[in-house]
Amino acid sequence: MFQAGERQSLVGFHPGDLLRLSGARPRYLVAAEGQNKVLVLEPGPGGSLRQTGELKVPVPRHVASFRWPGWGDGVALTPFGQDFLVLLKNFNAARIQEAEQVQVALSEKQHSIRRAEWVRPVDVDGDGVDELLFASNTTQEVLMLKYPGPEGAIKPKLVAKFRSGAPWDVLSADLNGDGAIDLLVPNQSKPFVIHVLLNDGHGNFQETAALPFPTDMGLRRFAWSKDKDGFGYLFGVGYGAVTLYRFPDRWDGKAPVPMRSAPVGSSEGSQDIVLEDLDGDGWLDGVVGRGKGPPGAWIVYGPLWEHFEELSAARFVLN
Length: 319
Known about the structure:
InterPro entries: FG-GAP, Integrin_alpha_N. By secondary structure, the chain is mostly beta strands. It contains 1 helix and 23 strands.
């Protein structure tokens, strides 16, 4: 059972991501976009949060932690609507003001229309060092920042460019079981599909057939994980549907990927999604954070594939 705590007003207008920082002590980094700051929060009495530090950063929307050699703990920040990223070097939550800020232009051209959403740290070439991947929905691209070496310049590298649409996020998953990290890229505008990019094992990607999504309005959030039945599952929500895709263990990149879905009412605009085993039975459970509908979350417990079939048979609609 879950119980919602009180609203936390200290994050201000239009807060962005909340990141659980590494370490035994529970600390969180919050993108307080409306305050032009990132905040360090710790648990307070009665389920509250208290602020223990802050750092001025222009309109931060998304945050992610990464590791590069010589950088200590790194943090990537996405400023809303800007043509640059901010990387924090040697980040320490107890001494946040000492972090070095590195501004990285999204393009070598001035006044670029490139805009980043979430930055996803993942090692795509197997060298043990994170690449920082992100989508640009204004230029139909997926890009990455690679570790530049001790003195090198940090420049975006093009990973993929699509003909149309607005790529929204980048999810990492070993889709074909070869040990290399592949990418799933939801498209926020027409065509409403999830692009699939297969890794050759060296960080080079080849696009294969996209996955259709049952909507005519847009895609929102997605999560990927392997379940105890041996299948990989992509759990997603968009305007009009909650979906579950099932990948076989050794998917060849060509075979059709089966999908089951449940309708979502027009009053719902879900913002967050989780794919984890909540009840300890070994099966993945799916959580959809409510957006415009009633406060709270919608949970479907595993085994998800069978339960989505039951939801479809019962003509369930998430309202």
